């Protein structure tokens, strides 16, 4: 388990072409890594054996009653946001009212994605992870005739009227686990209509966009979580 080649392959699996070398400092944070194992342990990354989950709760005022104008109901709105990263650079994001026990199952099968799931790719830059997500058009989602490579969850055809979601998240740590938290730093919506792009930024308040916390999901991977006996 201390073989450096195994740890180098593990680092390549996480950072890909941006892995760098051990004899040079990390360009993003000027950190020196003494071995591939040291890099894998200390360098910021995303976890693959589960998904990052956040819960948003807010109150919404309802309409006045016709019978009693002084009565106005208050609705409690709760929903969850799920983000799942995969080693090949793909990422899935879903917003749903389902509890985590049901929500994680909807993004378990990466080859049979629901229409309400955003799909795309991500890159790591130091402690920042950038996401480029896109939602398939309704016609493609319902018919299922999407031209794609085997194992790909991204449509190859470029839609002339598409919507992209550009997201930047900062990787944080929890007291019990490294890289177990994602904090929103930037969120832009880009709409393409008749070859004209229109962008709008979201107001990233803590109430609407709380940080996401990592939750392990056993059905997401076949790797061992502990050393084998």
Structure description:
The chain is mainly beta. The chain folds into two domains: 1-43, no CATH class; 45-54 and 81-137 and 159-225, no CATH class. The chain has four helices and nine strands, in the order H-H-E-E-E-H-E-E-H-E-E-E-E. The chain has helices spanning 4-15, 36-42, 100-103, 138-143; strands at residues 50-61, 74-85, 90-96, 117-125, 128-134, 163-172, 181-193, 196-201, 212-216. Strands 1-2-3-4-5-6-7-9 form an eight-stranded antiparallel beta barrel. Strand 7 (181-193) and strand 8 (196-201) form a beta hairpin. Helix 1 (4-15) crosses helix 2 (36-42). The chain is elongated, with a radius of gyration of 21 Å. The relative contact order is 0.15.
């Amino acid at each position: 388990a201390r073989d450096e080649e195994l740890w180098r392959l593990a680092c390549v699996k996480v950072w890909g072409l941006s892995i760098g070398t051990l004899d040079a400092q990390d360009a993003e944070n000027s950190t020196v890594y003494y071995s591939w194992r040291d890099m894998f342990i200390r360098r910021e990354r995303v976890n693959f054996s589960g998904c990052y989950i956040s819960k948003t709760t807010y109150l919404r005022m309802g309409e006045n009653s016709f019978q009693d104008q002084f009565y106005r109901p208050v609705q409690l709105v709760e929903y969850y946001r799920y983000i799942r990263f995969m080693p090949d650079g793909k990422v899935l994001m879903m917003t749903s009212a389902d509890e985590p026990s049901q929500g994680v199952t909807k993004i378990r099968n990466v080859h049979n994605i629901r229409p309400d799931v955003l799909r795309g790719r991500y890159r790591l830059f130091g402690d920042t992870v950038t996401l480029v997500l896109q939602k398939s058009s309704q016609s493609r989602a319902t018919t299922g005739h999407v031209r794609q490579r085997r194992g790909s969850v991204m449509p190859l055809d470029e839609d002339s009227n598409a919507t992209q979601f550009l997201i930047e998240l900062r990787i944080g740590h929890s007291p019990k686990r490294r890289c177990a938290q994602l904090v929103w730093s930037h969120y832009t919506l880009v709409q393409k209509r008749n070859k004209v792009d229109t962008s709008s930024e979201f107001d990233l308040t803590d109430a609407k966009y709380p940080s996401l916390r990592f939750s392990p999901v056993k059905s997401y991977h076949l790797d061992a979580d502990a050393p084998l006996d």
